[in-house]
Design a protein that fits this description.
heterodimer, A: mainly alpha, two-stranded antiparallel ribbon, B: mainly alpha, 74% helix, globular
Chain lengths: 462, 348
Amino acid sequence: MTVASTVVDLARAQFATTSIYHFLFVPLTLGLGPLVATMQTIWHRTGNETWLRLTRFFGTLLLINVAIGVATGLVQEFEFGMNWSVYSRFVGNVFGAPLAVEGLAAFALESTFLGLWIFGWNRLSPRLHLATIWIVVVGSWLSAYFILVANSWMQHPVGYKLVDGEAQLTSVWALLSNEFALRAYLHTILAGLIFGSILVLGVSCWHFLRGHEVDLFRNAAKLALIVAVPVTLLQLVVGNRFGEAVTSAQSMKIAASEAQWNTCEPCPFSLFQIGGFSKDDETPSFSITVPRLLSYMATGSFGGEVQGLNQLQAQEQSKYGPGNYMPNVRVIYWSMRVMAFAGVLMFLIAALGAWLYWKKKLERARWFQWTALVAIALPFIAATAGWILTEMGRQPWIVQGLLKTSEANSPSVSTTWLGISLGFFITLYVVLGVVDFVLMRRYARPDRPAPQEELPAPAVSY
Amino acid sequence: MDLQILWFCLIAVLWSGYFLLEGFDFGVGMLLPFLPKDERERGTMFETIGPVWDGNEVWLVIAGGATFAAFPAWYGTMFSGFYIALLLVLFFLIIRVVSFEWREKSESPGWRTVWMWANSVGSFGASLVWGVGLSNLLYGVPIDSSGDFSGTFWDLFTGYTVLGGVTIVLLFAFHGSTFLTLRTTGDLCERAAAAARRLAVVAALAVAGFLSWTVAVAVDRNDKDVVPPVLPAALGIAAVALAMLFVFGRRSGWAFVMTALATVLWVAALFTSLYPRVMVSSSDFANSLSVDNASSAHYTLAVMSVVAAIFLPLVLLYQGWTYHVFRARVGGDELQPQLAAPPTAGSG
């Protein structure tokens, strides 16, 4: 292995580690935020203290996570320049703009109003205080939009021209209305709502298991199920349709995610396979497939043509010169499956939970309560797999078709320092992760000793 | 007005905003181990900045994003060149960010002390590195002909840049102490005022020394005339001297205004000395990055200007309103904030 590729590999490993980690906390904020805001709204409307207690309970979990989300978000913003200076100079004109706008228009809103929400319980009128948590939600949702606009430009560059070896923005509207970005945004917001609702459901079930505050958490479970059932179902549809956008922008990613070596029409969807992940071994030794499903997922028609890895590789070579244009097929194939299967599983759990709730059996079905508690891990697994699919599926490109990852790192940062910084982030993040987990567990657990606290007076609706 | 110049000024404004606001919450953080005499007073100190520190830090995020968008070459060279320094900043900021919420949620006194120290060390470290880092933009670092940093971490430390770091630490601590005299009551307030008096003299000396040296460095190493840099530098020295007088005259409101002004003028003096360069090359002056060769194209700058014209006043407006909401002094007989207390759903 040459020095240059070691540097790039280390820089990639570091970016992957820090962004995957960051995204464990972000979607929880995106999804738990509106749920907490809804709880507070119900309290505000009805004056029913149950909902105030739920607001405070889940609000605490939200805040523990927001702290780490904010802290690790800063790393992301710095890392482009620190580790990818060539990339930064190449894309700054286009990619920098949504990042700057994110800070100015979204993150500022979220951070400022979060402070107002945390400390404003007794200083703001109940109505104004309620508004602050909704503004936090708006801020975080706007923030996600601008970040995905930036990321989607790496997947599907639009609204730019190349001048003297750098990309320059030509249409900000093309950038903001990038179809890839809009689909990715919907997919991410739904993912956030799944994170939030599955967490609330799981924690409520944990309390049922211990027979603790059953009446209180029945309300939380109901709210979680009302959100979880439609969003997990919708996510299956949206995720599926997102595949179409990927097919037109990044055919190679789709071919790799199916380990589809040769062009097919119509194409079956592989549910599971052994082997078939490398050039020397194109045919799996065992596989379970669904006829015509891949054609539908990739093109929207059951008879559609999907191009194969070999054909795409030949096309790319004639377009961009010699080189390997295939991502790691095995990783992409499995990350796609992990994400999709986890998505289906979460829908089934939500639907089952709703049925049990409707039959008034939710509080007694211990097997389901255990399942829901363990299922808290599923959104984290699905989101991680989804980002691995998105980012590793784009390789060897850092900006699809314009700049290769291997040419985009910082020349002034040495292997040694990269090794040290990677070790540094892993150590720091493990420590933060452990503390976060301990605190989350402590504040979510049912057998927590009761703290004495005075509640603010119930709001009068006006 | 030329958009490149506008954005150079805006980035100076963003750094000023960041230093002015986060400056006092860093200062409060640095004073945490020294001022309070018990856990309750530590809580009060945390509470003076609790509602606002996150909004203050936003100015850094905006400054970083704006540099990326408006001056990609500056962003690329500075962030990759100052790699270790920024790694340290990230470490200090991260332990500080989590310390606020996690201290609140920790029940054992040991862990609360750990998070108190995390906040304090984070505040001190981040201030020091920012001071050293920004003064390096003017003092110059080795930059090669392709615009990449070609030095080592140790090149960042010279007499001038280290004084820059020390000055920022002292100025922020001073700024934090004048802030505390406005936001606390009773005994704690008295001790904050005493700390302000002790810090005033050293901070004033450091600022005077650093800003004078800055003018000399601008002339010497950045090919500047004396006149533009000397104005903000002189005003900065005047502000910190006035702050000292107000502190000893027990005019805490005016003292805070003056430490705020001194902080802003520190940044203004540095950026005035820097212009039209954004990063001076010490190896070959011709390799310096400038407003011209590091900026984005006109269209991006125009779009960003429109966005800034709409959102910057808005941010100022709602952040200003936040300070209005939390204007009351903290401590004394006042109730602690509600969410700061543990959640209630656990109580049976």
